[in-house]
Amino acid sequence: MGSNGVVFKGDLEGLIIILDDQLDFSKLIAELKDKFERAGNFFNDDLIARIKLGTRSLSITEKKKLVEVFKKELDFSVIEFINDETNFKTSQQEDTLLIKRTIRSGQSVSFAGNIVIQGDVNPGAEVVAGGDIIVMGVIRGIAHCGVNGKGDATISAFRLEPTQLRIADHISRAPDGFVNSPDTPEIAYIKDGKIEIDYLRK
Amino acid sequence: MDGKVYVVTSGKGGVGKTTTVANLGTGLAKFGKKVALIDADIGLRNLDVVLGLENRIVYDIVDVVEKKCRQEQALIKDKRYSSLYLLPAAQTRDKTAVSPKQMGELIAQLKKEFDYVIIDSPAGIEQGFKNAIAGADEAIVVTTPEVSAVRDADRIVGMLEAEGLSDPELIINRVRIDMMRRGNMMNIEDMVEILAIQLLGIVPEDERIVVSTNTGEPIILTESAQAGQAFWNITKRLEGEDVPLMSLEEGVVDRLKRFVGLK
User: Fold this and answer.
1) Which of chain A's residues have a Cβ under 8 Å away from the Cβ of B79?
2) A79 in Cβ contact with A60 (< 8 Å)
3) What is the pLDDT of residues A51-71, one digit of tens each?
4) Which positions in chain A touch B45 (Cβ < 8 Å)?
5) Which of A105, A173, A176 lies at the smallest CB-CB distance from B91?
6) Could you tell me if the ipTM is greater than 0.90?
7) What's the pTM?
8) Which fold has domain A96-199?
């Protein structure tokens, strides 16, 4: 076996495929195909594969290509792509920023792509995104999505109790008095020139 | 004619500066005056919350100073009185975002259009305080009947004098007459003697203040509340009316009791 871009490993849960993160993507695909061919019917079980990408960040089309290779060559199901935790290479496509903490009063997060927050956005805090905002917690502060005019951007949260919602150049504020939001995830978007809020899943 | 510019300050935190500003502003607006309230506590703003206006903030004082918006865009109209406006502080910035010079220019502009401009100063004696007093013509010092608060108030009075605000007036807040009577709290006379400035008013401790702060409805609108009454009296004094201090004094019976040694 050639000692380069593609390494196969296995554990109890299935197959791990480690792809070198420095190698050109098309070369990787070629090498992967080659290895599958040479392996013949070695991988004839219905295997589950996890793919380690290192610091490489794949675009959607690249991911599709990879999955295609697996489908074509064997009956694999790719269950996950694994990246190293830090130092993502920036891809040309819209990025997403993941924040694993609560944004407190006076703190402000802004990012050109999407923002996902694993935590709450407290009153007095501000989240500003070029794309969508997803809060896996409660929004009580200000959320502004589509800040550069992207009118189809949305804001969703486990609980939507914001001081203000801003989508592109639209603003809506919380009603005065006690806010009683439903205990279910909601999503805000622009419809007919107005910000509307609906259940995330009906 | 230009309006009057007051700064409400204290040195110590938690003595009721923001509550005072919200109530006096509302009171003066109720009087029919055109009032602008300015939150100078950049980074720890509260006045918007106490007035129940937080959800209306789009632009703030830093945006005005940095010319990201016009002054009128940042002024938020109160939901109760149409002649009352709030210029909110920025929350995601700090005190260095505005300089005393910029503050002075901003206030000079505002006082042309308003009868009263009231500035809510942050606690402390650092730049936030210096910004807050920059454009003020007169100062109101708030304190509570505690040695620490009075000590800080004294420090502030000295600093105000050094900055040319030589006749500050005093509001003593959170007064508990029962404790004063028992001698467990500094009494009014002692405080006035130490600080040696004009007493503008005394506001009794009132648990309804907590409710009013949390709901964003200034207590001055609750006529039955003693604290509301006290703020109303202060408002009238600012307007030049001669209103006697509220009778928080002990009654005749109490005095008699003490005289015969029962207390």
Assistant:
1) 176
2) no
3) 888 777 777 788 788 777 777
4) 124
5) A105
6) no
7) 0.74
8) Pectate Lyase C-like (2.160.20)
